[in-house]
Each structure stands twice: as structure tokens, then as C-alpha cells.
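QA checklist item 7 of 12: single-chain prediction sanity check.
[x] sequence parsed
[x] length recorded as 163
[x] structure emitted
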Amino acid sequence: MGKNTWELARSHDAVERLAAAPLTFEILGLELSARIRQAIPFSGRCVALADSDSLLVASAVAENPALRNLGRFFALEYAEEVNRFRDLLRQRSPVSTLQAATNGDPRQSARRREVYDGSGIGDELRVALVLDRRCWGYFELLREQRDRSFSEEEGIFLARLIP
């Protein structure tokens, strides 16, 4: 990943302070993204609130060129697709990348083929945000096709950060 343990620890401490701050969802999403970007480089992101019963996205703060095709993005998200937000809740870890979910062949993903390719996105790192065994939101990081895929180490860092 190119970041040392000290930089990761500083990012973790900054995110812990944010969690305790009285911020609106929008400000929290922007600040959280800025702190995580110090440890994990990315070119796009989405922080979404979800209804904990239906798991549907209720509100989001995003910087994602693929959202120009928002209708198709959500149609695929709620259809039979790989690496869906709700699928993260059924896994051992609430974190996954598109590369891992497709066994290294992201072209298996209709979201990649139909939405991301036209926007230059190559990989996604997704996290289900869970508190007291209830999902309250999702966090997604994106990298461009010209960038390297997200590493297992980056996913582990986010999995440790989520609680």
C-alpha cells in the first residue's frame, strides 16, 4: 500500500475522533473520506445511509463519475449482481473488493461492464457499516482503471476501522 504503520494509526485516530463529533451525515461523509484518503488513495467514493430494515440506500454523499448512470447503477445493485452492498452482510467480513468478489475477473460484473467501464472505474472497495448487528450504511471507494486494484491490506484496514 505504500503507507507505514504510523500513517495508518494516525488515520485511524482521526476517524475515531470524527465518530464522536456531532456532525451532520454530509459533513461526516466528507470528513471521513478525507481521513481515509490519507491512508488509502482513491479516485471516487460514496458514503451512504441505509434503511436498516430494507437495506436500501436512503441518502448518500458521493464523488463518483459512474453516477451519471444512476438508474442503471441502482438497478444492478438491487438485481443479481456481484459485490452488492447487502451481500457484504452475509460474509465473514463486511468488506470486499470487486476484484475479490469476481475472483480476479471484474468483467464478470455487469456494474463494471455497463456502468464503470464508461466512467473509467477499475475497482471498488465496499464496506457495510454495522452497529449492534444492524446495517446503517455503506462506504465505497473507487479506483480508476489505470490505477492498481485495492489490496487485501487496504480492505483489512477498513474492516478494523468500521467498528
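[x] summary fact logged: The chain is about 35% helix and 25% strand.
[ ] second reviewer sign-off
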